[in-house]
Amino acid sequence: MAEFGRQRGKRQEDSGLGSVLDLLLANARLVLGVTGAAVLAIATLAVKRLIDRATSPRDEGDPKAEQKTLEESWQDLALIKVTPKPPKKQRREDLSEPLLSPARPLVPEPRVCFAPPETLRVESSPPRCLTLQEKLLSHYNSRLAVPKVQASLVPQLARSICAQLQNFLRSKCPELPFGSLFLSGPLLDGLGALTADHIHLMLPVVLDATLWSLIPGEDTVVRNPQYWMIKRTDLEYFPRGCSPWDRFIVGQYLSSNALNETLHKMLVASINWPAIGSLLGSIIHPVVASQELKLEVKHDQVELSITLFPVVEMEDKVLLAAPPEGLVENLWLESFYRAEVLKVKELDAGDSGARQHCLRILNGICKSHPALHKLSGSPLTHVVLHLSATSLDWAEESLADRFQQVLEELVGYLEKGVLPSYFNHKINLFCELLEDEIDEMGFTLYRAISEPELLLKEK
Predict the structure, then answer these.
(1) Do 190 and 145 form a contact (C-beta atoms < 8 A)?
(2) pTM score, two decimals?
(3) What is the pLDDT of residues 371-419, one digit of tens each?
(4) How far, in Å, CA of 432 to CA of 382, rounded?
(5) Fewest Cβ atoms nearer than 10 Å: which of 65, 113, 309, 376?
(6) CA nearest 404: which of 447, 369, 438, 367?
């Protein structure tokens, strides 16, 4: 009975201790994981056996029992010592360390909380508003300026054609005293060319001043001061045939139409342009249907149009064989182009001005605008020359101000319908414009005065 009580008490103690161990192992599994909990269970079991053997009664008469109890205790202790420690969970950063690294002391690493990286803020600066001058220069450089390759190739090609035509005229018409051909046009003179596709070829007609005289345009049938007539004089003393140009006389006047027709026949039928073109690496052919003396040139890098103008220089006048459309065929157009270029360059040289730059921008804009293309060239140049007489500040820094001022002046001239020539105030450079064209130009420029950027938009 007493033995039963001791056993029952032992079972109760075992039951209480087992409950504690079960609770401990359950929590250990949560904290240490499966491997750690297994190691802790083995160690706990060995300790429990030691406690049981120490508290259980031994048979004092049995020496083997005492020896067995000691041997089992040693085995349990050996079991605790040889039980391998659970491998430390490998961290990702340890993978980059060398394998043979010195042992580190097992010091619990402090928990480091990494703050999320701050997003770098790039403060975007507000877009800078370009000034009108910057917009004008950017528009010209990006859209209006002629590429350098074309600007150098076109004059070179035109001079070669000019030399071939000069040789032909001297061999074909040795009796006609033509002067030396020369090139002209905005591309060469720096007053603004939208494209490098047009060149003027000037053919001087040399007249004897004792046999020819100029009749002002006011005294002609058209009553236009811009057109002149060239009259043959002293026929009673120097009859027809004394001048090599008498063959082109119509009613005692040198006919620009008759001269142009003769030259047109030569260009179309008498010159071997295919041979000249192959020599220059180009295809050259005359324009048959045009009233002008025009050649079309196709090169690998550029297409070029060359217009031939017979020109007479007498009494400080430069007259072109470019009569107006109509029945009058003896008229010669007075050209101020050479005087315009020289005057603008002279003014710029005197005050280091930007008139030429302003004209290049204005000509480029007007030529590319469908409503303003007839203003390009001489009209713009004469407006700038008129303005130079009142506005003295033409420095590069004032380019935008002068640009707007030219627009205002143009609107004023269009309202009147009159733009007087800078060199002859009797000449109205708007005389050939239609009323509808003047209204459309005036409306376009009037809007551009308050908003110049309208002229810079794609058309």
Answers:
(1) no
(2) 0.70
(3) 999 998 899 999 999 999 998 889 989 999 999 999 999 999 999 999 9
(4) 16
(5) 113
(6) 447
